[in-house]
Amino acid sequence: MKLTHTLTLGLAAFATVLAVGSANAADLKNGKKVFKKCKACHEVKQGKNKVGPSLYGVVGRASASIDDFKYSDAMKAAGKTWDEATIAEYLKDPKAFVPGNKMAFPGLKKDDDIADVIAYIEEESK
To answer: How far is Cα 96 from Cα 72, in angstroms, rounded to an integer?
Structure first.
């Protein structure tokens, strides 16, 4: 009886973890939709810079590291590595995160949109 109760609780906990993990999974369709806000200035194609640098492979890349793009002095001095957490903070308020950077975008307010657009950029960079 005690073993059955323990197994039942264990399975319930496991099911909860799976459900939460699925609920937190990135929505690539929404990420693509959110990226439309970025598309005026950025591409996710390798070597394709626009007003902003290409975002192809941005996750894990050092800030201001694309040779043929003219970055602001602020971005050159930022010394950031664009991991998911850093990108998320930047996308919330680009001007506050790297004061003096050229990006005119005001930021994304919804954490889900931020996570989804980062996942979309990662997927498009494969």
So the answer is: 15
Q: Where are the alpha helices (DSSP H) in the chain?
A: 2-23, 28-35, 73-78, 84-92, 94-97, 111-124
DSSP state of 112: H
**Which residue has 């009886």 as its token pair?**
1
Per the structure block, which two tokens stand in for 118?
């980062």
Distance CA 51, CA 39 (A): 10
Locate 122 and state its tokens.
């990662």
Q: Where do we find the tokens 């050229």?
A: 102
Beta bridge partners, 62, equal 81
Which tens digit of pLDDT belongs to each residue from 67-100?
A: 999 999 999 999 999 999 999 999 999 999 999 9
Distance (Å, whole) CA 41 – CA 47? 14
Tracing tokens 């929505």 back to the chain, one arrives at: 27
pTM above 0.90, yes or no: no
